[in-house]
Design a protein that fits this description.
about 425 residues; alpha+beta; 5-stranded parallel β-sheet
Length: about 425
């Protein structure tokens, strides 16, 4: 393939970059190792594709824990409103859900991918199935991409090959290696937005139990609260997962030097005195009931044996026999079920990766390398990651568009 610009990676950032470059007048081509584009998009938002967040650019920046200032220019030009209008113009009907999360109205990620693919076809962007191995440099300039099927010539390259999460989708870290070979610094990738492992045996005992409308608080070994939010979580055979846990994991940056604990408030709508009053009422209304039956009105059935064991209360103990101290332990456990965390799941299971190309080596307005003229970066390959809620895909669209338009202008002199 011989084009003005070659984009490596057919994910969200890559497809946006190729479309933006072609729209700006460049002969753009896309190299993707998979037979289909957007493999990772298919699994985002549980297959529904949370494509952005219905909020101003400032809110996006507030949800980027590191290097958010780098994104200021890209998000100012490509904010969530632009992304919503872009997909609507491609014929995708959108809807906004809890937390301002934006989804296709059909709840099918395939609609987003199909729209992007049709747009590339309309712009006459050829797609080559090949695995890029290195960037060709000749006479100090970008000359093309070397892949498993041969050399592909071009004047500029946009690397948008993803991070190191979900390698089955093609994100195997190839972009890191290609960038490092050209002198770029790569911040070692770590998992972000990832389930958490716990040594607590009761997690496996409650495997499959989903809790809604609970409050999760994460504390470090000094007792400082790093995260607190209400929502949904899931017990698994290895520990904890679910939306709340994925969001919390982005705040847990140092598993090697710090120890974390999760505290689950099972009754966040009730203050301690209110919950104590309810306990007294439950106990008083059925004084001859066994505690295992009393707990059935307070927690899911699967959780009853765990609560009894953690509080040291016998399941056959009668309600009227419960001591004030036992009632206090039950109250404290309901308001703060403690789950110790041993670490994250493997990076391959992360929704996104933290780390990547050092952003100080990249022009934030154009996404062009400061080390290699004609080389651009977009998406998860950069050392930027955000919390859940559509913010990571918003970053992909914004950086992809910035890279595509800037590369086109540099190669063809076309204004964005």
């Amino acid at each position: 393939m011989d084009r003005d610009i070659l984009v490596v990676g057919g994910g969200a950032a890559g497809m946006m970059a190729a479309a933006a470059a072609a729209q700006a007048g460049a002969r753009a081509g896309l190299i993707e190792r998979n037979a289909k584009l957007g493999r990772k998009l298919y699994i985002t938002g549980k297959g529904r594709c949370n494509l952005t967040n219905h909020c101003p650019a400032e809110t996006v920046l507030a949800n980027v824990p590191r290097n958010s200032r780098f994104l200021y220019s890209a998000l100012k030009r490509t904010d969530p409103a632009w992304v919503e209008e872009f997909f609507t113009s491609l014929g995708v009907e959108l809807k906004v859900e809890r937390g301002n999360r934006v989804f296709p109205a059909s709840d099918h990620a395939a609609d987003i991918i199909d729209a992007l693919f049709s747009n590339l076809r309309r712009l006459r962007v050829p797609i080559l199935q090949d695995r890029a191995r290195s960037i060709l440099i000749r006479d100090g300039k970008i000359a093309g991409v070397s892949g498993e099927s041969g050399e592909h010539l071009c004047k500029a390259v946009i690397l948008a090959s993803g991070g190191a999460s979900y390698p089955a989708t093609g994100s195997t870290g190839d972009g890191y290696e290609m960038a490092a070979a050209l002198g770029h610094t790569v911040i070692p990738p770590k998992p972000s937005l990832i389930p958490l492992e716990s040594p607590a045996e009761f997690c496996a005992e409650m495997q499959g139990l989903s809790l809604r409308n609970v409050t999760l608080t994460v504390k470090n070994q000094k007792g400082k609260a790093l995260f607190q939010e209400q929502g949904e979580l899931l017990f698994t055979h290895f520990g904890l997962s679910g939306p709340l846990v994925l969001s919390a994991s982005a705040h847990m940056r140092d598993f090697e030097g710090d120890r974390y604990t999760c505290h689950i408030d099972l009754k966040p709508a009730l203050e301690e005195n209110q919950l104590d009053a309810r306990l007294l009422r439950e106990l008083g209304d059925a004084p001859n009931k066994d505690m295992q039956n009393i707990l059935g009105a307070l927690v899911p059935r699967m959780m009853i044996p765990v609560m009894l064991r953690l509080t040291g209360i016998s399941g056959s103990r009668k309600a009227h026999d419960l001591t004030k101290g036992e009632r206090r332990r039950l109250l404290e456990t309901l308001k703060g079920l403690t789950v110790p965390i041993s670490g994250p799941r493997p990076i391959e299971e992360a929704i996104v990766t933290s780390g990547g190309i050092k952003v100080s080596e990249v022009n934030p307005q154009t996404m062009e390398s400061k080390k290699v003229p004609g080389l651009y970066f977009a998406g998860e390959l950069l050392d930027i990651d955000a919390y859940t809620g559509g913010f990571n895909l918003q970053i992909a669209w914004a950086t992809g568009r910035a890279a595509g338009e800037a590369a086109a202008e540099a190669v063809c002199g076309s204004p964005p």
